[in-house]
Amino acid sequence: MYIIYNPTAGRRNIKKLTAVLDALTQFGISPQVLRTEYAGHATELARSVARLGGITIVAAGGDGTIAEVVSGIIGTNARLGLIPLGTANVMAREFGLPRKPAAIAKVLASSGGRLLWPGCLQYPSGTKQIFVQMASVGFDASVVHHVHPGFKKRVGRYAYVIQTIRDLFYYRFLPVQIEVDGKIRSVAGAIVSKGCFYGGHYLLTRHANPSERGFTIILFEQGGVFSVLNVGWALLRNRISDLPGVQIIKADQIKILTPEGIPLQADGDASGSTPVEISDAEAPILVAAP
């Protein structure tokens, strides 16, 4: 077993990682811990050890770290393990992972798990990026682009709340052209999701399944400050689907077309800008889960 650890986690998360390592010794497991040093390093590390075959590679970090590790093991028979240390840990909630270190260790020490079929962003340059939970365009992607990493590290998820308030004063709410399974739509924003949750425990839909191919898309037809506030309030109450001007549909192929240069985010991290094509990754992976 290898654990790929993002050291930008705070002191509290280092204690959690150490507790999981201690608990794993009770199962006779002494994993090798590999520390990431720069963006994309988790992918390189995962790819290098995945060649060994038949092993569990654990992502210790947030959803962005998980996505990097998945990029390195896709197409291999390595199993993905999770030690959630991020701000939101959406994927951990999606797969019903426990929070306590001893329980996390028990899951990692077990065999089997559940399939995850990741998504893939492909840009005009030919560059591809894997995501495990969701990608989006619109106001929330702008917020993610503007959150300073140091501020996020200090205050956690509240950094997004503060940045949301700031962005309300200058975001332009340009209409976005999006092609969904061949049909062109004009929207204010869209979330392309593999799972049911957003930003932690907030419910987008009850009908998504990250083990299956395809996506659930939440289309926001209305832009503007009041629309953002309504969406935020509905999200807090897990009632996004009840809002007028919100459509939730299933799709396999998505293209976010124009205008060019609109920010994108994936798994809570800034991920370039439009245009982009979104489709399933080349293969599913097995995730250690209860």
Automatic annotation (TrEMBL):
Is this entry keyworded Kinase? yes
GO molecular function term, any single one: kinase activity
Where does the record place the DAGKc domain? 1-125
Record protein name field: Diacylglycerol kinase family lipid kinase
Q: Which InterPro entries match?
A: ATP-NAD_kinase_N (IPR017438), Diacylglycerol_kinase_cat_dom (IPR001206), Lipid_Phosphate_FormReg (IPR050187), NAD/diacylglycerol_kinase_sf (IPR016064), YegS/DAGK_C (IPR045540)
Coiled coil start-end = none
Q: Which UniProt keywords apply?
A: ATP-binding, Kinase, Nucleotide-binding, Transferase
